Amino acid sequence: MAGSTDFDLYRPAEEHDLLRDSIRSLVEAKIAPFAAAVDEEARFPQEALDALVANDLHAVHVPEEYGGAGADALATVIVIEEVARACASSSLIPAVNKLGSLPVILSGSEALKKKYLGPLAKGDAMFSYALSEPDAGSDAAGMKTKAVRDGDFWVLNGVKRWITNAGVSEYYTVMAVTDPEKRSKGISAFVVEKSDEGVSFGAPEKKLGIKGSPTREIYFDNVRIPADRMIGEEGTGFATAMKTLDHTRITIAAQALGIAQGALDYAKGYVQERKQFGKPIADFQGIQFMLADMAMKLEAARQLTYAAAAKSERLDADLTFFGAAAKCFASDAAMEITTDAVQLLGGYGYTRDYPVERMMRDAKITQIYEGTNQVQRIVMSRNLP
Predict the structure, then answer these.
(1) How far apart are CA 384 and CA 321, in angstroms?
(2) Active site (annotated) includes residue 133
């Protein structure tokens, strides 16, 4: 925990190993069989949500005092990693539940925590994060969505874009400008509910990958919410948003690890079965070197991600660097590993009859969302340890 320097101090490794075994068994039985159909039909993975909720794995990060499992950052990483190994779209259920609710955990009032974390922990609601806008992506501080005070209420107007699980989630952490003169220090955070009058959604985006996780615009048309739905003090929303990303970029690294592991596992099995020139292609040195490089990159990414998770749990001073580094390195590695997996399957890898092309498409988004890898390099350069 805070102040600790030993990675293994805050939770026994055996507990994490048991968690991995149990979540892998669950995923193989309840999530993996639907992964191809979820992608092909571009539909929400309801089977995955049902299985995760039934096993209390949909939002493991919620503290115990609000009805959650109280899992540490590494446990959350392992859950996301193991789900992503079979279905990247499904892994966005636990990942985005953490992303959406972490601002409330970090900065929300006690009343706000009790009101929104309980239903999340029970599986009665999902939580999304609304920061990006049509003209404010990497430059998030340039957002235009506004919130104007009206007595005991705030009135929101604007548009958010690229919102993961939009329309499915019941709750949304929304960043809005409350003082246009102060730029980032004039941004505040709010909890908005899907049922609030004036909230509507655009059509689902037609995407390259993670097709089972709906990505939509959210429209706020004079959305009137109680003043006590503000997260933290007025003007602190942007700081909360950036603090949140320090922690949750590690969950994107975890997703990248899972995708890459799934691709490596499949390619490794394939090359042992596929025969050319009278023997398995796994016997050829060129293939062996590719597999070795894939495994090496994956393990390096995993070690960096787990170290970042430990820093997230301890609230270490260098978390910003390590969170960005883990996300950047793991997602770049996942893109390389999945591309090589497709290559190892040859023409078969290029078809939808085999899962590696889906994994390659899914891996791409990990280099883009929660801050492009170019932005991650800027973050790292400004926070060198």
Answers:
(1) 6
(2) no
CB 173 within 8 A of CB 100: yes
Assign 149 to helix, strand or coil.
strand
Question: Is residue 384 packed enough to be buried (19+ CB in 10 Å), middle (13-18) or exposed (0-12)?
Answer: exposed
Distance separating alpha carbons of residues 35 and 83, to the nearest angstrom: 10
Is residue 152 helix, strand or coil? coil
Q: Which one-letter DSSP state was computed for residue 133? A: B
As given in the structure block, the two tokens for residue 189 are 């955070």
DSSP 182-216: GGGGGEEEEEEETTSTTEEE-PPP--SS-TTS-EE
Segment 334-351 mean pLDDT? 98
Q: Which two tokens stand for residue 210?
A: 């993670």
Residue 13: pLDDT band (50, 70, 90) is: confident
| Active-site residue identified among 81, 82, 217, 370 | 370
Please answer whether residues 172 and 194 qualify as being in contact, where contact means their C-beta atoms are separated by less than 8 angstroms: yes
Q: What secondary structure does DSSP assign to 223-271, as a single string?
A: EEEEGGGEESSTT-HHHHHHHHHHHHHHHHHHHHHHHHHHHHHHHHHHH
Distance in Å from the first CA to the final CA of the chain: 20
Q: What integer is the mean pLDDT of 172-186?
A: 96
pLDDT in tens, 46-105: 999 999 999 999 999 999 999 999 999 999 999 999 999 999 999 999 999 999 999 999
What's the one-letter identity of residue 75?
A: A
pLDDT at 292: 98
* Two tokens, residue 158: 């604007």
| Tally of residues, the chain | 385
Question: For the segment 139-148, what is each residue's pLDDT rounded down to a tens digit?
Answer: 999 999 999 9
Specify the amino acid at residue 244.
T
User: pTM for the full model?
Assistant: 0.95
pLDDT range class, residue 10, cuts 50, 70, 90:
very low
- Alpha carbons within 13 angstroms on the beta-carbon side of residue 88 total 35
